[in-house]
């Protein structure tokens, strides 16, 4: 099963790329499918692409649910 998960944008790169952070893991992704993303925003990421921007409160709820079912570590709090 593949999951689309919320991640926080921590760095914008040239082109349509960005670096996101999820529970301390940083990964470069593509922002080609979304617009107006800034550092600190949360995006839903699936197979290396941001699919849409996510409200910080919704990101927090989703990350808490993943943590509860054991899919993420305990340090996935939204800042």
Written description of the protein model:
The chain has 79 residues and is α+β, with helices and mostly antiparallel strands. It has one domain: SH3 type barrels, CATH 2.30.30.140. 16% of the residues lie in helices and 39% in strands. It is built from one helix and five strands, in the order βββββα. Strands 3-2-1-4-5 form a five-stranded antiparallel sheet, with helices on one face. Strand 1 and strand 2 form a beta hairpin. It is globular. It starts with a strand and ends in an 11-residue tail after the last helix. The relative contact order is 0.23.
Task: Write a brief structural summary.
The mean pLDDT is 86. The protein has one domain: SH3 type barrels. The radius of gyration is 12 Å and the shape is globular.
Topology of this structure?
Blueprint (H helix, E strand, L loop, with lengths): L4 E8 L4 E6 L2 E6 L11 E5 L2 E6 L1 H13 L11
Antiparallel strand pairs: 1-2, 1-4, 2-3, 4-5
Task: List key phrases describing it.
single chain, 79 residues, SH3 type barrels, five-stranded antiparallel sheet, 1 helix, 5 strands, 39% strand, carbon dioxide binding, Hydgase_assmbl_chp_CS, HypC/HybG/HupF family hydrogenase formation chaperone
CATH 2nd-level architecture: Roll
**Mean pLDDT, as a whole number?**
86
Strand order of the largest sheet: 3-2-1-4-5
Question: Any idea what the radius of gyration is?
Answer: 12 Å
Largest sheet: 5 strands, antiparallel
Helix content: 10-25%
Number of strands: 5
Q: Assign an overall shape.
A: globular
| N- to C-terminal distance | 28 Å
Number of helices: 1
Would you tell me the structural class of the helices and strands?
alpha+beta
Number of domains: 1
CATH domain topology: SH3 type barrels
Q: What is the H/E string?
A: EEEEEH
Assigned CATH class:
Mainly Beta
Low-confidence stretches: none
Protein name: HypC/HybG/HupF family hydrogenase formation chaperone
Family: Belongs to the HupF/HypC family.
InterPro entries: Hydgase_assmbl_chp_CS, Hydrogenase_HupF/HypC
Organism: Candidatus Dechloromonas phosphorivorans
